Amino acid sequence: MDINKTKGEKLIYNNIYKIHRKSVYGYDEMKTIRMKLFKDFLDTVVWTAWLKDSRPVSSILIALPEHCKTMLLEKYRYCDGIIYLADATARGLQEELSTRYNNNKPINHIIIPDFLNILSRQQSSVRMMLGFLNTIIYDGTASIKTHYTDFKLQSINSGLITCITTAKFLEKSKLWENIGFISRVIPISYTYSLKTKLEIAEEIKRSAMKNETLQSEHAICQFPKEKELVTFRNEQLGNQIKEIALLLPQQMLPNSKREMVAGFRLEESLFSLCKAEALKNDRYDVENGDVDKVIEYTKYMNLQFKEV
Q: Distance (Å, rounded) from C-alpha 37 to C-alpha 291?
């Protein structure tokens, strides 16, 4: 241990070392105690696609580089109904959707592990892609009409899960606010605390000294054979979700005015997340614990970049 560490840093370091000695986890940032919340959240987002009469929920993770964003998303690349794309144009995504649609394959979520790849293209391509995603993830119709392309598929409701760096999100947030893109995806922001940074650094060192391969495991997704109906019966719990949905938009965009994002789409998404929490735990009626878990997620549904 560095003898120049302050007393507080030494205490944090020692506590982290004790945690790792007792932990069954190997190197995998996502499996640290604090990152598990985001893994649980993404699990639930993916499960929303299996709810009957509901749209799949969409989300964007926002954090600094080296904050486990891509690793979190990579877990789901082989799950049923997932379209995992490192990069794509609207035309390329159209072709992928058309192939899956014609082969009767499920189309649940589009996962783009780094949205910077999309935004790095020419502005005309970026605008077309954003417009295309806007339509798919909420209206349920995939369509492109240009001089070169005339494409339309009915009844496609696909969610979007992606991530972006803090700086790039802040740069683009005004445009996304104006076109309604941000009201269609739930932003999740966070940053690492000193304790988390030291914990990850310790695991990297431990893995390197043991010559372990630094890789993450893929999620094991055991979905139902068909979409299921989950009920939300408790009026009091429903009021909690409604009130949160009306208040959260004030925290979801920099310098945004409340009237620009009313929260109706968010409210719908929060109810879907509650139902998905129940479904992934083999239940068909929402309970208090499901709502409590979603309320826990909402602590990061903002641009406050709270520490984990």
A: 14
